[in-house]
Amino acid sequence: MKDRIKRLTILFKTSLLRLSFRFLGKNINRPKKIIIFQLAKMGDMVCTTPMFRAVKKKYPDAYLTVVGDLVNKQLLVGNPNIDGYLIWDKDDPFSIINKIKSEKYDFGCTAGPNFEALAIMILSKIPLISVPRIENGWSPYETIPYKVLRKFVITKPHRMGNYAPREYLRLLETINIFTDDTSKKLYYSSEAGKKRDSLFLENDINTKDLIVGISPSAGNKIKKWPEDRFAQVADYLIEKYQAKILIIGGPNDREESREMLKNIKNTGNVIDLTGKLSVEELKALVSKLKLFISVDTGPIYIAEAFSVPTVDLVGPMDENEQPPIGDFHKIAKAKDRGKPELHIMNARSYNEKGARRQVEDIEVSDVTFEIIRLLKGSTNMVI
Questions:
Q1: CA neighbor of 315 nearest in space, from 345, 293, 342, 288
Q2: What is the pLDDT of residue 318?
Q3: What would the pLDDT profile of 247-285 be if each residue is shown by its tens digit?
Q4: DSSP SS3 for 276
Q5: Which of 27, 30, 70, 239 is 20 to 30 Å from 175 by CA-CA measure?
Q6: Contact at 8 Å (CB) between 130 and 157?
């Protein structure tokens, strides 16, 4: 912790020193090199993909680099709108400065308030920088150093309570990109597609089946819904629709998946894929589902990107900010939930007891009700 504080202090002081020599805010008519920071998790990165498409639509010859973690690099493999990807090292933010500086980017932005990302763009001599300014709420990510540095760059409003993918797009207005297109898109390799097809063949799954993915865990454990209730949802789908249930999760989700599987009555129609898929294989698999069910976590956004109908158990999350939207995307929440405890720009400061109540008060019937609504209206499903 002391080393991190020391690094942040050095980063802040060197950024101020850099700013004392040059005010950032140069007008760029047609940027040739653009860099976008998205340092949050998988779901947030999926919701940032409209930015990449918007950049290439306006400036098809521009070179676009994305900065994020290793998992998100794998998530974005195959995206034709991205030319380069830099892996963010949160323990050594200085390591990336020379790489960025050598590329001489014309424009940079960060999807969420982040002091380190802003400082690095400044120290990398990017002449035009755009960052979010939180409105209609409070965000712990807007630290004092961040607020100091953002005075020297372009700021765009990010209104809490509004749809986050649309708010991200405001950052691009700095380089004359104006769009409301928030549709998301992901890609996967033919090899991953072949592995998925083999998996389906081995488990007697075909396109006529109601193939349902369920993820019983979440990156942020405060969002977790009881595993035995996910099991009841699975049993409902199997008994009523003879569904094939695929349990999906990463290596750290095995306990939740085991608990769910233990409570399922009809295990013959269930395949536990927890910890068995790479990110590339996960994308390929999800793309062929007929329905995906989980709390508000990364894989549900992968489903949205492949136009797979979803039921999102939003729990303490604000359903207006990021969950999949559209006729074939439904949310399940407690009937008397009240004001949501968590927001995209504030997932740190909340009432833990209240957040858990907002998850646990979601009944199985709340979820099955939304499933029925989807099954009645979707041409992508078999009843």
A1: 342
A2: 97
A3: 999 999 999 999 999 999 999 999 999 999 999 999 999
A4: coil
A5: 70
A6: no
Mean pLDDT on 283-304: 98
Q: How many CA atoms lie within 13 A of 380 on its CB side?
A: 18
CA dist 280 and 231 (Å) reads 26
pLDDT tens profile 67-114: 999 999 999 999 999 999 999 998 888 889 999 999 999 999 999 999
- Residue 300 · residue 276 · CB < 8 Å: no
Structural domains in the chain, sorted by start: 2-175 (3.40.50.2000), 190-377 (3.40.50.2000)
- pLDDT tens-place string over residues 303-316: 999 999 999 999 99
Alpha-carbon torsion (43, 44, 47, 48), positive or negative: negative
With the C-alpha atoms ordered 240, 242, 243, 247, is the resulting torsion angle positive or negative?
positive
Alpha helices in the chain, H assignment, sequence order: 2-21, 42-46, 49-58, 70-75, 97-103, 115-123, 144-149, 164-169, 190-202, 227-241, 254-262, 279-286, 298-305, 352-360, 364-377
Paired tokens of 340 = 């949501």
CB-based contacts of 35: which residues, under 8 Å, 6+ apart?
A: 64, 65, 66, 67, 86, 100, 103, 105, 107, 108, 109, 121, 126
- Tell me how far CA of residue 79 lies from CA of 157, 322, 346, in angstroms: 28, 21, 29
pLDDT at site 92: 85
Residue 337 token pair = 């939930």
Asked if the model's pLDDT at residue 364 lies above 50, the reply is: yes
Instruction: Let me know how long the chain is.
Output: 383
Please state, in angstroms and rounded to a whole number, the distance separating the CA atoms of residues 207 and 63.
Answer: 39
Burial 102-122 (b: 16+ CB within 10 A, else e): eeebbbbbbbbbbbbbbbbbb
